[in-house]
Design brief:
mainly alpha; Rossmann fold; five-stranded parallel sheet; 25 helices; 56% helix; signal; TPR-like_helical_dom_sf; P-loop_NTPase; TPST-like; EC 2.8.2.20
Amino acid sequence: MCRALAAAALLAAAAVAAAVVAGQPDAAAARGGLEAEVATARAAAAAAPDSFEAQLALAGALHRADHAAPNGGKRVPDAAAAYRRAAALAPGGPASPAAAYVLSNLGALLLSGGRVGEAGEVMNATLALAESLGMQRSDVYVGTLFNLAKAEQQRGEQERSQALLLQVVESARGVAGASFLKAWAGLKSFSPEQLAEMEEIQRYLRRARQGPVDEAALSRGERHAWQALQARWGWLGALSPADQSWFNFALWAAYQQAGRHEEAWQALAEGNALQDAAAPFDPAQDTGNVAAIVRMFQPPKPSSADPGDAFYAALMRGEAGFRDPPGLRPIFVVGMPRSGSTLVEQILASHSQVWGAGEDTALAPLLPDLLAVLHAPSGQVEASNIAAVGARYIADMRGRVPSDRPEARWVVDKMLRNMWHIGFIAMMLADPCILHATRHPADAGLSCFAQPFEGRGTPWANNLTHIAQQLELVQRLADHWDAALPGRVMHVRYEDLIRDQEGTTRAMLAHCGIPWEPSVLSFHTTQRTVATASLAQVRQRLYSSSMLRWRRYARQLAPLLRPLRSAILRYEREAGLESSAALLAEVLDTGAAANAGGSAANAAPAAAAGGGPQQEQAQQQAGREEL
């Protein structure tokens, strides 16, 4: 069906919504700068195909652009090819230190691009080359070893991953500070001897961040103690606060294991303060974007005689959206991080007819084109043009399904930020299945605060007040989509999966039109790579220990709990959970709350700027079985 109608109200709203898609002007300018860098590098590489420098520059430009502005992994093949050409052209030949450096970056690119098996092969070859060149005490060797540990973790080889991380800890001493501290953060268990060493490292880092030490003002014992710390750990002092913060997350895990919860919280708060100071977040943009979305996607008016209203209602019902003739149907898993979304995807991907495509969505790059259709200069919205954008999305997602999985009829897109784009999804696709993964707000908030996110997507996660604001915005969107698209979004509570796995899973499959298969109940045995912070959880059976863990830290979480008080009580009522009203009253109304402020800044000294690691590392999470 193809219709062309004047829809002035819709077009005006589309103009407002353009800001939602484009993001902040500075971010858009940064993306434009990256694309310009890529274009320049492409031209230089084409003009000098035998130049090591030109090929390496192209690979690096594509790698940076892929990390900063993902587009569904489309840049990865070109970047990988450029890295391979550079390795072949390396000064000294393909068995030189320069080639090892290039191959290390290639492995990181492939890992962050989801090509885990290929990444592992490249990393093992890089390590063998580095060992043959005597480079075991180099950034290249240690960084590759660290990335290989992440690859093994994603493949589900936890014992192998932990062994590699311990090897990184030893190999990186005095050589690669960032990898050294990140390796600690990836460990799942700690011996008393390790914890003692970690506390010594932390004493040095805390004192070094305060600035130069006036040794003349110290007592003899204090001076000797400081000089001993500096002699052993001074090589870590030049790391940036953001790199140093990873060690705080390691201490958080180690202290929790030891039952020292006050010290655990102090370490966690300090680590988040360091990250927050390094990259401050302004929530105004997200708040404005949600307001724009709500204005654009109003509930349809079924009784209106206005043809524009009728067309808008038809759009929201998906009547202009694309339906795939071969039958590939998309499933969108949306919501807040640390709310069970990876578990939902793993359950779905355990079905023989479902493929889990992960988080690198194909949707975001298409939204500007959809907005251009909705904001047509002629004032006419062509339904066929809307469907064409949907067809491009389906074609891209079909390309993510491996050739040896021809039976796949559903594909899962787990880009959580698509929560903001559900209105666009409803327009451009005729039959999308949308699942909103949700969890107790305080548990989700604590889990975000406890996870050392790195890279893109969660700049708010180092500040309890900002986490609360993000939770409120996501809930506002969930309520709005329920009003604007009644029945289209299924809310999948993490607690329901824990308490009634089969019943909740059956409801989930029914919502998406997927036939029942018992295999989905054994999701923990499904062999697939998982590249999120929840990877440990989906490798085992469901457990309830992550429910209501926030209560142990209720006093420290006051900046999160105060704005979320009503949302917490509402969630508990709707989920049938024990009410926290009395605990919230005790913490928030009696002055028992910790005076922590919105961020964790009061628990940590001021952060100072510093340098970062030299070689590329895949942007993956430390991923522990926690919270």
